[in-house]
Amino acid sequence: MSFDVDVTLRRGDAEVRACFQTGAGATVLFGPSGVGKTSVLDMVAGLLRPDRGHVRVGGAALFGGGVDLPSERRGAGYVFQEPRLFPHLRVRANLLYGARSDERLEATARMLDIAHLLDRWPRTLSGGEARRAAIGRALLSDARFLLLDEPLASLDRARREEAMRGLERVRDEAGLPILLVTHDAEEAERLGTTVVRM
Predict the structure, then answer these.
(1) Residue 18: what pLDDT?
(2) Would you say 50 and 43 are in contact if contact means Cβ atoms under 8 Å apart?
(3) Is 103 exposed, middle or buried (0-12, 13-18, 19+ CB in 10 A)?
(4) Is the whole model's pTM more than 0.85, yes or no?
């Protein structure tokens, strides 16, 4: 499954424009802060409406040519810059929030190396653990593709490496197309099957 994105969004005097076609794997939107990477992610998710263009994932039109699917029907698993785990739910309940069943819980938790954290509260997790739990929740929501916005931002070196290994496993084992935003060249090179410079 692949991304085919050609979108333009005007914001006052500024314009965000992105045009790329990718194959399977992880596509990284790479560039400095402020160039519109997150806006592109939001347009793919259906959280922002482009002024013109199209968004297709796996050949299915999400926007363009008379189609404008609402965000809840696009099948995106979106992981924001902050993990946004529910503080009143343990990790297990966070992972299963929105899941259609719990059959894949154990396998997903093992893939992300968080199986030992399932009974913990979000406030007791490190930054890397919380990010991996947020990715697990997105995977278990029956997402057709993943959108990751700066998933390693503000992590210290050890936590960043831990989260990076989790993302590599997701890229290699989950079989879902991933669109990831970063301004870090090492992340782009290590995680990206395709790198789109913005």
Answers:
(1) 95
(2) yes
(3) exposed
(4) yes
